Amino acid sequence: MYTGTLKSKSSGLKIVYRNTSLKCSVVRRRGADGRIPVRTLDRGASSSAAAAEPTGYPGGPYDTSLLVKYEHHVARHIWFGEERGPKKELKVAGHGLKLNSRVPLALPPQMESWVSRSGLASLQRTSLNKIDTNLVSAFVERWHLETSSFHMPFGEMSITLDDVACLLHLPIRGIFWSPQDVTEELAVELAVDYLGVSQSQAQSHVRSCRGSYYKLELLYDILVHHRAASSWAYATRAYLLMLVGSTIFADKTFTLVEARYLLLFRDLDGCSGYSWGAAALVTLYRYLGDASMYSCKQLGGYPTLLQCWIHEYFPTVGKRGENWNPAGNCGLPRAMRWSYRQGVLKVDDLRPILDELTPTDVIWRPFEDHRAWRVFDEICLYRGCLKWGETVVPYLPDRCLRQFGYRQYVPSPPLDCMMATDIDVDWISYHQSVVDVIGSSSVATTPSEVVDGYLEWYYRVSHPRLVPPHRDAPREVPVPVYDAGPSDPDWARVSTLIRRYLRQVNAEEEDPQFSDLFEALHISRSH
């Protein structure tokens, strides 16, 4: 199947064509500041039409009504070759190695009962020993807090509630948590009442943390002390707080956990009612939003969740070890499938690789072979705001419908969570929002199916690439035309490798020396 381009020097019009199907994209030149100047009037055009034309940035967006914070986004700077600092990758701390040394092979039965009922037991074994900071950073550069999604070359993708349920086996249904403020004085009282430490020790410790925090190291010491003394409630609270502080609630201090989270475990018999999956997602979304800004150099949250999500959906990107094949899984969280392998690619090596990804490089529904242990819950298609503590984020599955097996349409504008007033009610009465999300779509006939016009819309409002194809070329990003790709993952891998090589050497299909490779590419795409 033949794809090519025609470009008129006089009009600046680029036509991308495949067989007899024509797709057009107008190439517009940018000023030195990255904005598109208002176009001079064509003959017969009205002045009101010119005034209404939006400005934009190199590589996108042309229309800035969606990504309203793009001016401060790291992608805007990367396009011009501007890095965050001497280190291009983010500082990302994984607690995996330390947590593995602190989690016993077996808990005492008195503690095991509470931990199991809490809904958090799976977090004891899901953490990667180390994090590939370059791989994680390359994806963070594509995250946008306005849409709670990664902006890939072929559309949006996101970490969904279903992903959290399958990767971490955390409960999705449950209540959100609205905490009270915890001062340093209250942090001391909580430590005395619920962790069994002395008043003087608690005061000294909180003072050393310079705020309402506890050190993860102290929590481990408390666990060891009270376990030896058979003070099971104190030991269990210290253990659970250390566990969430090292995983889903990890912050950018990398050594502390907020004291207010101890309030979650005052009643050890009642902490199972929370939506821990939503809590993990809200925390990660918040930190991804922060880290996507040019001025930020660190990522908090649970990086294992992000990296294992990448491993599941993008089999050709990054290095990873595989502990077991999904077919041989015996009900373990899917994050435990993966292990760390040191990558050789730096973040600036990964950027052009991500730029060249196509829909066929994605496993759109990686957890269908995991449904025996985690049945799909329709609440994962809830469109609304998620809340944990004072943090509220938009959760927008209508922007990543292909991950749910539906045809992707042009989504509604994102929610303004600052104006949300009944988040808990919306969450409980989620069913109508699910109907609204899937009612406008249909089951996809191919895994990556989109409606006509989706990519053209997406390329107006987003930045599909992070790196200009050629630094000395006009800063333009034409809308791609994607061929149908292979459905088998192994053939998809073959197709990706062949295509990547052909692009690296700028091969043309008409060139005889590459004819065999192009034939192999077409064969791989037919499987």
Automatic annotation (TrEMBL):
Aminotransferase-like plant mobile domain boundaries: 119-458
GO biological process: meristem maintenance
Top-level taxonomic group: Eukaryota
Protein name: Aminotransferase-like plant mobile domain-containing protein
